[in-house]
């Protein structure tokens, strides 16, 4: 954080919201949220049916045993010896069963006479401060009391080498000083690009443990940097640093732990991680419909996706390096996002993927943390950092989305509502979708027509 910067979420001042302030210059950036000019009070809130997707969703019955088994091949590395200091990298995603998995890894290392500690592996998240990153970990339950190891957070990095073309390679100083490094991360499709290596242990090494400096250096090259440079940086780090392996977690379509895999250092960023990514894509959440006029998303957040909403689920990339026509996912005309998760700590990075939002979300946004994340992410941050149209409340937001979606007859609007892009198995849908719902064996009706309550999060079931 720059000297003199005053971090805070947006706050209400009459009809305006102060979204950023700087105590040195006393400058303030405000936006006028008296947005009744964009309201559609004449648009009725449609009745909706609650439905559920029926999918084969594997679940790991015992995550502690699975984590222990995944760690076993990594423990054969000679650097993991009695008395060794071991940095365990943990990131900023809301991974199911993260605490018991990390606790198991820590416990096994301690049982072998080693001295593990936690390092935040999250690039620029947490406002790009050590204190902010430690706060993010604690919000996910990663604390010394819960996992049995101290947290050592820093934004300082060491340049530990370079690629063959001179591209610099950075690594967290606390991790660099350890005798060994293990990362714990989810393997999943990335929201900014498609490649053989996407989100997973390799990316956590290159970007997460590269901290803000390493992350911004890679993101400066856009999707090409992520697709081509990031895996090379990860492999170079493995060659030059004491990285001994990674724990790769794959989740099912309902965000539950499906599989846990161990990767030795020689397997990270290579063919095994590519195979695990293919498996993760098989199980990734997908919307039940390929064409929607309006998609209502109750909440976005950094715990859900790097850009707040999974771009594969909503069918939007908004990256100059990527053609929207080539991006997978549904065709959605208008997206309305209503709120942000508390564990995002106000980081609303990616809110520009939505078309409409609420005053509540904007007032809960920490714009410094959001802009820092957008800046670090490069081209994607520029496009995804554009503010959506702000409406007074959730009902007004949904009405504006319906009114502005281009369907002249409101009863024909194909509207679906989800809790977030991680939990898409339970949906509320409008009458215009019910003919399709009744014709499909993979969808079941849970509740007949009712008025939706957008002030309460949609309940999800597995």
Q: How would you sum up this structure, described in words?
A:
This protein has 462 residues and is an alpha/beta fold. The chain is built from 15 helices and 18 strands. Helix 1 packs across helix 2 (98-111) and helix 6 packs across helix 8 (222-240). The longest helix is centred in the middle third of the chain and has 19 residues, at 222-240. The two termini are 41 Å apart. The model is unreliable at 1-8 (pLDDT under 50).
State the distance separating the first and last CA atoms: 41 Å
Percent helix range: 25-40%
The average pLDDT score comes to: 90
Number of helices: 15
Shape label: globular
Q: Output the radius of gyration.
A: 22 Å
Low-pLDDT parts are 1-8
Give the class from helix and strand content and strand pairing.
Answer: alpha/beta
Biggest sheet layout: 6 strands, mixed
| Spatial strand arrangement across the major sheet | 13-12-16-17-4-18
Strand composition percent: 15-25%
The number of strands is 18
Write the layout of secondary structure elements.
Layout: E1 11-13, E2 16-22, E3 27-32, E4 48-53, H1 63-71, E5 85-90, H2 98-111, E6 115-120, H3 130-139, H4 144-147, E7 157-162, E8 168-172, H5 173-176, E9 180-186, H6 201-208, H7 211-219, H8 222-240, E10 243-251, E11 257-264, H9 271-283, E12 291-300, H10 311-314, E13 331-340, E14 356-358, H11 359-363, H12 367-376, H13 379-384, E15 389-391, H14 394-403, E16 415-418, E17 426-430, H15 434-439, E18 443-450
Parallel strand pairs: 5-6, 5-9, 9-10, 12-13, 12-16, 14-15
Antiparallel strand pairs: 1-2, 2-3, 4-17, 4-18, 7-8, 10-11, 16-17
Helix pairs in contact: 1-2, 6-8
